[in-house]
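User: Predict the structure for this protein chain, please.
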Amino acid sequence: MPETLFKINAKEYILPGNRSCQGCGLSLAYRMALKALREKTIMVLGPSCLCVLHGLYPSTAVLIPGFNTTFASAGAAASGLVAGLRALGRDNETVCAFIGDGGTSDMGIQSLSGAAERQTDFIYVCYDNEGYMNTGTQRSSATPLGAITTTTPIYTKEEHKKDLVRIMEAHEIPYIATANAAYPIDLYDKFVKAKKIKGTRYIHLFIPCPPGWGFPPKDTIKIGRLAVETGVFPLFEIENGKFHFTGRSRALAERGHKIPVSTYLERQARFQKMTPAQVNVFQQWVDRRWEDFLRRAEADAKHFLS
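Assistant: Here is the predicted structure, written as structure tokens:
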């Protein structure tokens, strides 16, 4: 059964006074993820905003142990931890790699793919703030079309973001989910479920970033919700190959009405150079993906009922 606000683990694993930015979507999502994962969890951290949140040795703002690794080796480091724990007979501990979109979709995709192909027993989380935010807002392959970054200062990014979910699904892993910092209970439920499953589990986590995206810190939740309401970032699960919407996206699918993507784009300074033609291309991309998801949800639901 899904959790409710009153059943969520009351213990806090992030202490007050961490070094995340004001309005940081990552700190909100990480707080809920740790509540779901609880004790006997070891985090694998690539170079990222999350390392800043954890703090500099020997001080930390987090009560869960973290293992710092390089950009390219998170999947390999997590695999090594899993093997070491199993060799010691510590089979009841969870290894969770919590890596940014640059460390996942760019430099770290090789080691992640290798671990997933081996069905290594760990949770991999790509927290996606759509750029290299910790090092100055550079473009990554997860940066969306039309965005301005410090490495696209004159012209906006001309390509759509890489679809990591489809890449991970090609590995036939048992559990894939999307989650959003603006929907904490849906996020919490998915981490609780992922912890109970064996094999490689992949969660793609949408993280609004006030300084990198150019919106006021008070609007973090609003931006995250608009991403779902417009269909830019649908909420769903893929369990053993079967797709279904969750949370707010399920309601949108049943209601059959999304709001225009321009409502989402116009609230962020990173999209201020988008032309009307680019906005139209972005809308078409969102609509095409949404229709594909709708067809798949309907087909998988019929297969389940039969």
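The first strand starts at residue 41 and ends at 45.
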